[in-house]
């Protein structure tokens, strides 16, 4: 073996991955030839496959699909969509408009699902250690409220009751009854909701239940939310490009911001 072979091996190992295999004439995702997936796997199946290394069951895929659909769009009220629409009028192209929308999804806008799943996981772990769900919920809520008066995944600035909550929770309840998932995260979510009533669970709280029940770690709750919301961002950015408006700002030109002298 010569020095050139050593360099090629080192570079190949530097980018080693188990996610995909790409060679001339070969595309494999987690060992599955792409030609076997085309027409046989949905995008939800492929998301699961790439993240988990295996295909989901039909019921697992249905739960993940529902969570992604629930996250897809929330109109220009959402900063990620408003920013994408404004970006689309600045001549930057759809890829930049989508990226700009995605890039504002942080701890406050877009991160609640991850935070909520972290909270549920604390409750689940304490309950497993013998605290019981009710006591685990009380102590976890107390710790989280030391950081903020807001509990991630509960309440909504726009909806008195999030219309996505009941269908998502209902899907999980049926999955628990059928033995598809074990129900620990569902129990945690419902316990938090009961403890802080009448503040209802929102879409982040409901999808966090789904991601937890499906075995996704908390950071992926944010990543999966971003995937779902990217669909809405694309649709809004594309619609905005079709209107012909240039340099759309956050308010119409006829309205000027109030001025408050320092």
Main features:
3-stranded antiparallel beta sheet; Citrate_synthase_sf; 2 domains; transferase; mainly alpha; 3 strands; 262 residues; Citrate_synth-like_lrg_a-sub
Topology, please?
Elements (H helix, E strand, L loop, with lengths): L2 H12 L5 E4 L2 E4 L2 E2 H4 L5 H10 L5 H13 L8 H10 L5 H10 L8 H20 L1 H15 L17 H13 L6 H12 L7 H11 L4 H25 L20
Antiparallel strand pairs: 1-2, 2-3
Helix pairs in contact: 4-9, 4-11, 4-12, 5-6, 5-12, 6-12, 7-8, 7-10, 7-11, 7-12, 8-10, 9-11, 10-11
Distance between the termini: 72 Å
Number of strands: 3
- The helix/strand class is mainly alpha
The overall pLDDT average reads 96
CATH class value of the largest domain: Mainly Alpha
Low-confidence stretches: none
Query: Number of folding domains?
Result: 2
Put simply, the count of helices is 12
The description of the largest β-sheet is: 3 strands, antiparallel
CATH topology name of the largest domain, in short, is: Cytochrome p450-Terp, domain 2
Assign the CATH architecture of the largest domain. Answer: Orthogonal Bundle
Going across the major beta sheet, what is the strand order? 1-2-3
Fraction of helical residues: 55-70%
What is the ordering of alpha helices and beta strands? Answer: HEEEHHHHHHHHHHH
Shape: globular
- Determine the CATH superfamily of the largest domain: Cytochrome P450-Terp, domain 2
Strand content: under 5%
Gyration radius (Cα, Å) is: 22 Å
Protein name: Citryl-CoA lyase
GO molecular function: lyase activity
Keywords: Lyase, Transferase
Family: Belongs to the citrate synthase family.
């Amino acid at each position: 073996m010569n020095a050139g072979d050593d360099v090629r091996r080192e570079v190949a190992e530097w980018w080693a991955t188990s996610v995909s295999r790409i060679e001339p004439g070969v595309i494999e995702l987690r060992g599955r030839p792409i030609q076997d997936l085309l027409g046989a796997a949905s995008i939800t199946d492929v998301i699961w496959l790439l993240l988990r290394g295996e295909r989901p069951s039909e019921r697992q895929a249905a739960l993940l699909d529902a969570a992604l659909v629930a996250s897809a769009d929330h109109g220009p009220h959402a900063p990620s969509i408003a920013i994408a629409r404004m970006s689309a009028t600045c001549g930057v192209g759809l890829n930049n408009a989508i990226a700009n929308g995605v890039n504002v999804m942080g701890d406050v806008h877009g991160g609640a699902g991850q935070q909520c799943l972290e909270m549920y996981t604390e409750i689940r772990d304490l309950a497993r250690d013998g605290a019981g769900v009710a006591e685990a919920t009380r102590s976890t809520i107390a710790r989280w409220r030391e950081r903020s008066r807001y509990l991630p995944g509960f309440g909504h600035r726009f909806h008195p009751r999030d219309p996505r909550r009941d269908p998502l929770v209902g899907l999980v309840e049926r999955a628990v009854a059928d033995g598809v998932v074990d129900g620990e995260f569902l129990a945690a979510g419902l316990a938090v909701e009961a403890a802080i009533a009448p503040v209802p669970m929102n879409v982040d709280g409901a999808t966090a239940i789904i991601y937890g029940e499906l075995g996704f770690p908390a950071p992926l709750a944010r990543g999966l939310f971003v995937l779902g919301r990217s669909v809405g961002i694309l649709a809004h950015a594309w619609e905005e490009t079709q209107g012909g408006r240039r340099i759309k700002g956050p308010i119409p030109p006829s309205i000027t911001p109030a001025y408050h002298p320092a």
